[in-house]
């Protein structure tokens, strides 16, 4: 989600997105305790992909998890395709109850659907249950606890799982009655702003180093918790960064998850971890020098044992991040020619493909605008500050650029919504940004087997709305409040609709219905609403 238009610590620090937590060990292992997976191998370039489904178990027909399914493919099957999409009309809308006059509006989540009910959460942490067919509000659980998002809920075992800024919770899916609540933050500088993961009767929730009031205050870390879905009891936890914060806990912070883990067929989980801070640094400690070294496990994809939380392998494509280029999106599990692979992406503006079993790098592809700063982190890591850019300077991707929200995949192609939004650094701590509506973007289609770009579709405004795929269509939203559907083969626009307000949230697709939201009114007459577009419905977009 974009920050507000004032300059300061919190807007610069949270920096995203649309749209977004540790093993029976409480502290993370040192940098040498776990060997990184082999990197920079040529891998399977040129290997043709097959017509296998992304997770080998069939394409889901229901949008039953925040990223569509447990593999985070954001892909479903159903009757909506390029021949039928023109028949989408407004079936119903539901007002968003969270305040919309603060950063970043009132809504940023992806809804989930279970047993004919839409479950979702606004940026006041309030949970809604809406009848999919009619739009009738069945119940609302009000928390009135501000979140910077991307947040959201997950559903399983007859319960709805979510979190406020301080605690994970479970609600009865039928009534909305709270069944349990568990505080997870260690201090007032930490928070929770993700949709939980759910698998095998276990809920996964991560804290992050911040909350709606402040981000990246010294001494705050992200911790991933595995909780019993029935009781909330802790099964294990894993610190995504060490508690000593690389030697300076009074100043440094980092880690945590923005989006849910993804789960393979054995139940092991793949997580993407956020950035370290301060960034770039401070006047006393420029270029991240208060946190020497690669700053594990920030900006990393990590495979964890589901039973213990023990890391099985990790890759850190961006060690010693200095520009807040998170690798924050949920990993995506899929297959290429029968080979299980995992895709990673984030504000760094790259998509990476790794072998699921070994972590071997198969390919990496830059997307969107880059202007020559991709290796600055390695120069800073070595302490060769004389070779760093001279202030002031402008970079692409900026801290709100790259791929700010989750990607999607089908049998042959990866789809990434990319934000071309610069940041200008005038000092070590606070960048400046152009107005939000001056940023542009694009949707990029990448060959799943080779990493080659197939096509690029430009947008006049930023696409914070992730990507979602059904048949031969890929959906996203742009900041101006437009829902777009593009043809997956050509990249040509097949359909669009105007939401009742600016949007920084993704699209869910369930059967004949597309769910989207305009959650951040920017002009008179705009209203924050969740909208259902349905085949054959006669309502009109605004």
Write the layout of secondary structure elements.
Elements: H1 9-14, E1 75-76, E2 88-95, E3 112-114, E4 117-121, E5 127-131, E6 137-141, E7 154-156, E8 159-163, E9 167-172, E10 178-183, E11 197-199, E12 202-206, E13 223-228, E14 234-239, E15 253-254, E16 262-263, E17 269-272, E18 276-277, E19 301-304, E20 311-315, E21 332-336, E22 339-345, E23 350-355, E24 361-366, H2 376-381, E25 393-395, E26 408-409, E27 413-420, E28 423-425, E29 431-432, E30 440-447, E31 453-459, E32 468-470, E33 473-478, E34 482-487, E35 493-498, E36 508-510, E37 513-518, E38 529-535
Parallel strand pairs: 1-32
Antiparallel strand pairs: 2-38, 3-4, 4-5, 5-6, 7-8, 8-9, 9-10, 11-12, 12-13, 13-14, 15-18, 16-17, 17-19, 19-20, 21-22, 22-23, 23-24, 25-28, 26-27, 27-30, 28-29, 30-31, 32-33, 33-34, 34-35, 36-37, 37-38
Entry keywords:
mainly beta, 5-stranded mixed β-sheet, 542 residues, 2 helices
């Amino acid at each position: 989600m974009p920050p507000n238009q004032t300059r300061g610590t919190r807007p610069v620090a949270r920096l995203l997105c649309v749209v977004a937590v540790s093993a029976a060990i409480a502290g993370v292992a040192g940098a040498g305790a776990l060997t990184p997976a082999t990197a920079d191998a040529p891998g399977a370039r040129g290997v043709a992909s097959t017509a296998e489904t992304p997770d080998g178990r069939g394409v889901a027909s229901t949008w039953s998890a925040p990223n569509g399914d447990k593999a985070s493919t954001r892909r479903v099957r159903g009757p909506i395709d390029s021949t039928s999409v023109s028949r989408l009309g407004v079936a119903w809308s539901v007002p968003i109850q969270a305040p919309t006059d603060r950063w970043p509006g009132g809504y940023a989540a992806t809804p989930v659907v279970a047993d004919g009910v839409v479950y979702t959460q606004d940026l006041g942490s309030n949970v809604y249950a809406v009848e999919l067919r009619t739009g009738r509000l069945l119940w609302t659980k009000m928390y009135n606890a501000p979140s910077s998002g991307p947040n959201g809920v997950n559903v399983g075992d007859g319960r709805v799982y979510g979190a406020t800024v301080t605690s994970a919770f479970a609600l009865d899916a039928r009534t909305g009655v709270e069944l349990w609540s568990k505080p997870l933050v260690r201090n007032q500088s930490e928070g929770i702003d993700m949709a939980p993961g759910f698998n095998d009767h276990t809920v996964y929730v991560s804290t992050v180093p911040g909350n709606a009031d402040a981000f990246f205050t010294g001494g705050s870390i992200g911790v991933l918790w595995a909780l019993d879905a029935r009781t909330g009891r802790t099964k294990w936890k894993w610190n995504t960064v060490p508690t000593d914060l690389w030697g300076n806990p009074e100043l440094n912070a980092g880690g945590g998850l923005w989006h849910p883990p993804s789960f393979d067929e054995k139940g092991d989980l793949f997580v993407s971890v956020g950035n370290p801070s301060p960034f770039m640094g401070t006047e006393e400690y420029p270029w991240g020098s208060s946190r020497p070294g690669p700053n594990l496990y920030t900006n990393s994809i990590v495979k964890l044992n589901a039973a213990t939380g023990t890391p099985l392998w990790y890759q850190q494509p961006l060690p010693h991040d200095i520009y807040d280029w998170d690798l924050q999106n949920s990993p995506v599990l899929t297959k290429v020619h029968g080979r299980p692979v995992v895709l990673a992406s984030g504000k760094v503006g790259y998509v990476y493909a790794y072998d699921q079993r070994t972590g071997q790098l198969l390919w990496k592809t830059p997307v969107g605008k880059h202007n020559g700063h991709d290796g600055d982190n390695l120069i800073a890591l070595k302490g060769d500050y004389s070779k760093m850019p001279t202030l002031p300077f402008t970079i692409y991707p900026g801290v709100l650029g790259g791929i700010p929200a989750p990607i999607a995949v089908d049998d042959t192609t990866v789809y990434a919504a990319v934000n071309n939004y610069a940041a200008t650094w005038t000092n070590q701590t606070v960048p400046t940004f152009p107005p939000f509506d001056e940023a542009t973007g694009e949707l990029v289609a990448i060959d799943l087997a080779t990493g080659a770009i197939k096509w690029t579709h430009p947008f006049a405004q930023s696409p914070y709305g992730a990507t979602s795929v059904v048949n031969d269509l890929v959906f996203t939203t742009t900041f101006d409040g437009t829902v777009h559907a593009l043809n997956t083969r050509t990249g040509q626009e097949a359909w669009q609709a105007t939401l009742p307000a600016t949007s920084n949230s993704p699209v869910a697709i369930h059967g004949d219905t597309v769910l989207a939201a305009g959650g951040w009114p920017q002009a008179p007459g705009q209203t924050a609403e969740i909208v259902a577009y349905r085949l054959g419905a006669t309502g009109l977009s605004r």
